[in-house]
Amino acid sequence: MAHCVEDSSRYTYEEYKQTADWLLSKTEHRPAVAIVCGSGLGALGELLKDQMAFNYSDIPNFPHSTVPGHAGRLIFGNLNGKPCVCMQGRFHSYEGYPLWKVTFPIRVFRLIGVETLIVTNAAGGLNQDYKVGDIMVIMDHINMPGFAGQNPLIGPNEERFGPRFPPMSDAYDKDLRKLALAIGQELGFSEKIREGVYCSLGGPNFETIAECRFLSSLGTDAVGMSTVPEVIVARHCGLRVLGMSLITNKAVMDYNSEATANHEEVLQAGKDSAKYLEKLVTLLIQRIELNNNVF
Ligand SMILES: O=P(O)(O)O[C@H]1O[C@H](CO)[C@@H](O)[C@H]1O
Ligand SMILES: Nc1nc2[nH]cnc2c(=O)[nH]1
Questions:
Q1: What single-letter DSSP state applies at residue 251?
Q2: What is the full DSSP assignment across 19-60?
Q3: Residue 125 alpha carbon to ligand 2 centre in Å
Q4: Which domains are delineated in the chain?
Q5: Pocket lining: 249 vs ligand 2, CB cutoff 6 Å
Q6: CA-based Rg of the chain, rounded to a whole angstrom?
Q7: Using an 8 Å Cβ cutoff, are 154 and 146 in contact?
Q8: Binding residues for a purine D-ribonucleoside, per the UniProt record (predicted)?
Q9: Angle at CA 6, nearest 5°, toward 165 and 98?
């Protein structure tokens, strides 16, 4: 019998539930918003008040962070009076994790009652107008690994989370995007707040010049190695999503350029610009309207 994509080690519904129940038994926080911190953006987690934090290694079934700039802590707390949970460190497929493992926390968030997901990332700017330190509100994405058959939803569909064929044309919530852009203006960031298309690649190498030119010709404004799998799984299980990329480097598009991308530069740009993203996220969370959905 043909048996191509089934992977018996993938999580069962009961394992997602076990992790969710474990977290709910260890904390009284009941978050409605989850925040995923991108490379070098972990300081967002420090914004939470009345914190209760768990190391990923102590949470049943949770993968471990292996990338510098991703601390590996799950923080519960309140931000501007709203109950939140924050991933200080995400998982990437280049770490060797299958996409169903990369996205494990998202379904756990759903089961603990989260209704809105804010995903952040560090990304290379392909749009020639973008500068290092700009914040791009993600309007849409290109799932490049998806073109090659890599998708976190591959395998038997778990109907308790969502349908077999979820749409993605509405992946990034219009109202949240509008709100993020308006708050960016209000905070005086009109020079640095953008809206554009994020493309996710597998990594871990940064792009060649030809690849950057190719991605740019496809309509990509910023490129990274994350986020899209999390967003697909979040939309599948009905979460509202806002995505934001911090432009940490300009993609190299010119054969005469001596510049090369590196992770240290990415982390430094994160440090330098974290304050802008922090202000934006803090005000956003204050203004987000919640439905108090219980899954
Ligand atoms: O997407 P995040 O996790 O923010 O990190 C981005 O930065 C790292 C490369 O410097 C890659 O992991 C890329 O995906
Ligand atoms: N793929 C990719 N990921 C990044 N993360 C931060 N900068 C970059 C970049 O230039 N390319």
A1: P
A2: HHHHHHHH-----SEEEE--TT-GGGGGG-EEEEEEEGGGST
A3: 8
A4: 13-287 (3.40.50.1580)
A5: yes
A6: 18
A7: no
A8: 207, 249
A9: 85
Cα–Cα distance, 121 to 269 (Å, whole number):
12
Give me the pLDDT at residue 290, please. 76
Q: Which amino acid is at 234?
A: A
pLDDT in tens, 139-155: 999 999 999 999 999 99
What's the length of the chain? 295
Report yes or no: 92 and 205 within 8 Å, Cβ to Cβ: no
**Residue 3 annotated as part of some ligand binding site:** no
Residue 247 near ligand 1, beta carbon < 6 Å: no
Ligand 1: centre distance to CA 45 (Å): 17
Cα of 250 from ligand 2 centre, angstroms: 9
Give kind and range of the element (H or E) at residue 138.
Answer: strand 135-143
Nearest CA to ligand 1 atom 14: 225
**194 in contact with ligand 1, CB cutoff 6 A:** no
The three-state secondary structure class of 255 is coil
In one-letter notation, the amino acid at residue 223 is V
Kindly state the DSSP code that residue 165 receives in the 8-state scheme.
Answer: S
- The residue nearest atom 10 of ligand 2, judged by CA position, is 124
pTM listed for this prediction = 0.96
ipTM score above 0.85: yes
Distances (CA, A) of 223 to 93, 113, 135, 161, 242: 15, 31, 13, 29, 17
Active site residues: 39, 70, 92, 94-95, 122, 225-226, 249, 263
3-state secondary structure of 82: strand
- Residue 69: the pLDDT is 84
| 8 Å CB contact between 282 and 47 | yes
Is beta strand 240-250 parallel, antiparallel or unpaired with respect to 222-224?
unpaired
